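Allow me, if you will, to draw on your knowledge of protein folds for a short while. The matter concerns a single protein, recorded as an amino acid sequence and a row of backbone structure tokens. Kindly check, if you would, that the fold set down in the tokens agrees with what the sequence suggests. You will find the record immediately after this paragraph.
***
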Amino acid sequence: MEIVAIFFYMMAFALLESLLIAGSLAVVSAILPKMWLREGFSYKGFLIVLISSVASILYQASLRDELPGTNIYFLWVGVPILILIVLILLFHFVHRWRVALQSVAERFMVFAYLYIPIGVLGLVAVIFRNLLNG
């Protein structure tokens, strides 16, 4: 039973984290000029999440027992932003690649049909469990 509880905590946290990221992208899209993020939101948002996820994983793997200096930190922030800008421009101007990336992003949407209900179920279970134990 503990394994199920841990799974529900994990899925509830993942759902809240995903909602925070998607909501942040939507707010930024509403604030920025139309050409920057609103047009082509699906492939630009997909690239932003993909590059930031890979950069975060690599940054976390490079951390040892101490925080790196500011030069290395700015390198870990600057390089992904530069890669992101280059990729967004590349996919913006090469139509065939943009269509392929949008197709990949749409295929990932299939996972949402499983992920969202399991996340909501996990969130309800976590709330219910904490109310009973609290």
Summary: The chain has one domain: 2-133.
